[in-house]
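A quick word before the example. In earlier lectures we treated sequence and structure as two separate objects. From today on, think of them as two lines of the same record. Here is GAF domain-containing protein written that way.
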Amino acid sequence: MITFSLSRPYLAQFLKRYLFLALLTCAGAYYFYHGVQERISIRNRAHERIGVELKKDALDNLLRTARRDLRLITDHYQLKRILEHPSPDALHNFELDMLNLSAATKIYDQIRWIDESGYERVRIDYNNGKPSRTPEAELQDKSSRYYFMETHKLNAGAVYVSPLDLNIEHANLEFPHKPMLRIAAPVFDSLGGRRGIVVLNYFGAELLARFEKAGTEIAGRAMLLNPQGFWLNSPLPDKNRGFIFTPTTPGFSNHYPEIWERIKQAERGQFEDAAGVWTFDTLYPDRDDDARPDEVTANAWKIVSLLPSEALYGDRALFKPVLGSMLALLLLEGIGCWKLAGLRQSGKHLQAQLLQSEQNLHKLIAERTAQLQEAAALREQTENRLQLPNAALKAAANAVVITDNHAVIRWANPAFAALTGFPLEDALGKPPKDLVRSGLQSEAFYRALSISILGKRVWRGEIVNTHKDGFSYTESLTITPVGDRDGGITHFIAVKDNISERKHAETRLANLTRVYTLLSNINQAIVHLRDTDILLKEVCRIAVQDGGFGMAWVGWPDAGGKALVPAAFAGIDRETLEQLNNLAAPGDQNTYPANAAYNQACSVGSNDIERDPRTQAWRHKALALGYHSVLALPITVKGRVRGVFSLYAGTTGAFTNQAIKLLGDMADDIAFALDMDEAEHRR
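And the structure line, produced from the sequence above:
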């Protein structure tokens, strides 16, 4: 039996190898863990930016609607009649129209016209859903109120938006408290003389409720701040709306003075400090849609979100498995290096014992033993070095695929199976094109990809593939060629990431933006056009040219009231439109969306004409014209359906719930314009 003592050379050999392997192991574990945490933080930062933008868009849309209503009132023809030819009849008609506007919008606590002396001439109170006019004896002098003095100085077309504060009646705070936002504009007569102002008292609680509801997926704490840095809305219960009720309450600027100074200096941004990641954007309540992007006003609200540091990097439970794996590797490396050092030490003792009798033979055996030991040590070191990268690749969130130079899969991690739906045992030995190719990319696309990677260049891009279950998804793809010493290509490494949700979010945002543009342009047409026929033709034209719809038409009932006839249309000729809707044929017209919407007094449509069973009677006509989605909206005037506004789109899924709601509001605006035109004709 060979024995040896714990000598200094023995320890030196052990420490030399073990410390080197331990350093590599710790460095690999650190970079792996740090990389995963950094990816999570980048995702969370992006979510915070999107959430803040959604909250800003929600408030901006509400204020844009209020400014639109304000301009409708200042340009109202009954108000112009009062200014030019005052009469009780004109004043009464103006009050009736304002009562209808209050009942229709449901967002204004008061609608007022205050003359140039500061005295209320018309005041409509919402009264919890029962709008009423204020008798002349109860009208008040508002000449000393700040919003009258500020608005009365403005030029034509300008809008004043007040701070969010509590409503005051007869010099006293109204109780129960009503947070109120006053939106006002000056009124001018035909000679340019100032004739007072129009004021809309917007329900502040409704504005703040929309703010809280928008961007609910945001992980951080969302706050709404006024220009002085006070909280208008905050997830912190002890600070929520403190400025509205107690102006002396310390605000955000007092609690976070350095953060507030930094936020005030920029339009939008994102930065990190000890508390977490701050994301902010700026909203200008009184800036018009046609204002320049670089035009800055003093009335700037700040939308601020704080994502705490502990939430920035997501779930820290990954630290324990990584630490455990690293400690296990360190233990195995220590055992291996200890045994290796022991083997080397025992070899030296054996060489000393046999040197005298069989020196030549011992030398040959010692050399051979040393060679075998070195080979074993190298093999063990190689295996230890490969364990961590292999574990890291298997645990990676992105799908990783390694193919040979013939594009046959030789290795893939579990994330690849989760992405494609194909188990690893079914994927190995097959080309990726036989598993996931969707056929949506052309052969020219794949030829360009092959030329790039065969030329030893890294290829990056996006591609649509098919899951095992049959649905399509979009992935971000990076393909890296791996070469040998002779300059040839031996393998390709592909890294894949599913970005379908991000693409869908971008598409939804683009569709909503297009619908908002459509609504804005149609509302402008309603304001400026008085002739009904011209207005309807312009509405159809805007829907096709600005809204991006394939076709739009407005139908009125015929003399018998059994079928609809086109009153205006765009994107199609009359003959094709009548053939598409089978207007001249008898039978059940409710199979067509326009007639169904007219008879049922509700919106009727389909987001997939090709597969919807309700479209069987006419789908071949629509598909031949390139239409895949349809929505018919009733135009209801004073509770009676007067006509139908129909929209056709060239894509499936074009009408989301939010888009249908916005388009329904647009149909109500058209109905309001028709009602006003008919009232004018009756008068």
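Notice the following. Confidence is low (pLDDT under 50) at residues 236-245. We will return to this example when we discuss secondary structure assignment.
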